[in-house]
Amino acid sequence: MNLLVTGGAGFIGSNLIEHVLGQPAITRLINLDCLTYAGHLANLRGVERHPKYVFEKVDLRDKAEVLRVVRQHAITHVMHLAAESHVDRSITGPGDFVHTNIVGTFNLLEACRDQWAPTDFKVPGSADPVRFHHVSTDEVYGSLGATGYFTETTPYAPNSPYSSSKASSDLLVRAYHHTYGMPTVITNCSNNYGPFQYPEKLIPVVIQKVLNRQSIPVYGDGMNVRDWLFVRDHCEALWQVLTRGHNGETYNVGGHNEWANLRIVELICDTIDEFQPALGGGSRQLITFVKDRPGHDRRYAIDAAKIQRDLGWSPAHTFESGLRETIQWYLQNNSWAKEVTQDKATQ
Fold first, then answer.
1. How far, in Å, CA of 322 to CA of 190, rounded?
2. Where are the strands (E) in the chain, listed by range?
3. So what's the pLDDT on residue 67?
4. For this structure, is 138 an active site residue?
5. Which of 97, 125, 176, 185 is 20 to 30 A from 134 (CA-CA)?
6. Does residue 274 lie within any of the structural domains?
7. Active-site choice (18, 65, 84, 138)
8. Ordered mean pLDDT values, 10 residues apiece, the chain (347 residues)
């Protein structure tokens, strides 16, 4: 397996590379990343000297360079994670999301088709199929009410430029399977959290605000609900789908952990007060309610029964256990947060 991981310097990608690099099936692992503000090689210091690991600084929007990488490294498997992913940024600047998430995915699919079609989508010298694994989000399904769950057959109803761009890329991958016979799988996951998440998403933002004794902004009434998935549980699910999933299938990956945003903020405050009593406690007093963002989906919840039934995967962490591990990591690696945010601020 010559595995291409796109977006491998980002949050999920860097955790994924560390999780799978030791797998015997992998001959080489090529990390393609253009190192936007959310991608940082500091995330990969633990693997950068590994003999199987190769880094390629390439932008998915550069069609010629993407094709070069796929050809030069004789890629046989792809785990496509690279994407612009922050909803707030998609509202103020949707263009980057269209070009990276849609056009970038198209460029990658075309490069793989060019490389794989002459071998009838088989690994050269083998009867084993190549595979394109597209990693997506539950946000493509839109918003839920107080009850119900997203399944793999839920109609797409994206409500932000980000989720619309991901829905578009999902459909491109589906089309390449049905039109050209490319062996593809798609995963749609719930909200990830854990080590190396860039400090713009809810959990790392709140951790930094508490540590710095700054006001913690909470959108609306704070009762928007998300299903939360510990990133290392997600990485194991991704590996299972890549290696054992059925071609043309979609698998929803969820943590069975529904939490309202306000309750998460309160839990983070209480946990840091426990871990860092020298801060003085009372961190909940930092919570400030702010105007809700446009198109803010009320609730997401994943039905992950299919991946559990077909592939035997289920999350190993509860939200409480995963969150405590995450908070401990950020407390022990506070210099990392400063490094990646200061470094990107100078670019």
1. 15
2. 2-6, 28-33, 53-57, 77-80, 131-137, 184-189, 191-193, 216-219, 225-230, 250-253, 258-260, 287-290
3. 98
4. yes
5. 125
6. no
7. 138
8. 97 97 97 94 95 98 98 98 92 96 98 97 93 97 92 96 97 98 97 93 95 96 94 98 98 94 97 95 96 90 96 96 96 90 58
Q: Would you state the pLDDT for residue 342?
A: 79
Residue 41 pLDDT: 94
Active site (annotated) includes residue 139: yes
Q: How many CB atoms lie within 10 A of CB 213?
A: 11
Q: What pLDDT, on a 0 to 100 scale, did the predictor assign at position 346?
A: 42
Alpha helices in 181-230 (DSSP H): 202-211
Question: Beta-carbon neighbour count of residue 345 at 10 Å?
Answer: 8
Q: Are 31 and 44 in contact (CB under 8 A)?
A: yes
Amino acid at 311: L
Cross-strand partners of 192: 229
**Catalytic-labelled residue, pool 162, 176, 198, 300:** 162
- Token digits for 300? 């997401």
* Paired residues of 29 in beta bridges: 3, 53
Question: What is the model's pLDDT at position 343?
Answer: 59
**Residue 345: what pLDDT?**
47
Q: Order across the sheet with 53-57: list the strands.
A: 53-57, 28-33, 2-6, 77-80, 131-137, 184-189, 250-253
What gap in Å lies between CA 66 and CA 62, rounded to an integer?
6
Range of the domain at 235: 2-192+231-256+299-318
* 187 within some domain: yes
CATH number of the domain within which 174 lies? 3.40.50.720
Please say if 162 is a catalytic residue. yes
Token pair of 273, please? 């007060």
Supply 168's token pair.
């578009």
Count of the separate structural domains present in the chain: 1
Catalytic member of 18, 33, 139, 236: 139
Contact 330, 277 (CB under 8 A): no
Please tell me the predicted confidence (pLDDT) of residue 344. 54
